[in-house]
Amino acid sequence: MKNVPAVLKAMVAKSACNKIAGNYFPSGILKYLGTKDIDLEKIQNMFTAAQEELSKTVYNSNVYTAKMSIVTAPAIGNICFNLDATTQAMKKIVDESGMRANGKIFVEMVKADLKAE
Amino acid sequence: MNYDALSSDAEYMKLLKFRTIVQNTDRYLAGRANGVFVFGNMRSKFKSYSVPIFKRYNSDPLIAAMENIFNPNKSSMLEVLSDQDLVQTYLDMKYKGGTEKNYHVYYRLIFWLLFSAAINDDIYSAELSGIVDLAYCFDFDENILRDWCKVVNLIVSGGKLDDIKNLTFTTEAADNFFVHKFE
Fold first, then answer.
1. Please, which contacts does B169-174 make with residues 24 or more away whose CB atoms are closer than 8 Å?
2. ipTM greater than 0.85, yes or no?
3. Which chain B residue is nearest to residue A97, measuring alpha carbons?
4. What is the pTM for the complete model shown?
């Protein structure tokens, strides 16, 4: 149980508290957990372990306990399905912001300014 | 960073100038919440959360300068994401009633991670998924992220900090954090 990463537990709690089970667990986190090739059984076991662990913990325990049943096995498939979609949507925002292109110019400007000085 | 080892005065000045931009920006982001630099006892947490990427990519002198500013002590994004304190502390704060000052730590972390991605190809290509996932853990949605990108864009476009107030934000989080409307 102690091996359940804090971030996983936190996300379970977050899902429970927000009454949303189908849109969490970003793909990056799964990747870091070593579950890049999504293994539903493994994730389900992690959920169960996290639930047990969290049931001993605090947060706002009334809210938490009441909503905990939301994060159960039937939701796992949806969660996995939506993981990457969430990450990709947010990455797209960054891609389309032009931040990277301007960042390259910024780096060049820092150098160019120095030459000018 | 050992500035004595730099190859030239020009190199030194380049990094000094960059450091000034970063430090000025961070002081703006943090320092106006209540008129002082607000890290307080959250400062050490911010340092440990913000820097693993900087340490991994510090062959880029600009990233190395950021590493120096934020004083790293962790080595990978994995260490950040598995940090017992990171998301847990955020959730504790959130559900136990955090203040604006507390949220600043997380907002600034995401800002500087996005900034580092903007100025470094390797970070952008290899770490962006992790960065947006982390942002997601801190309740960033697409609109909030879009607002954060606007400010990163302003800074890397050579804009002045005073110009931030001229940006149009679509989220209350950005208004509060960047325009200091809570003051």
1. B170/B143, B170/B146, B171/B143, B171/B144, B171/B147, B173/B103, B173/B107, B173/B144, B173/B147, B174/B144, B174/B147, B174/B148, B174/B150
2. no
3. B149
4. 0.64
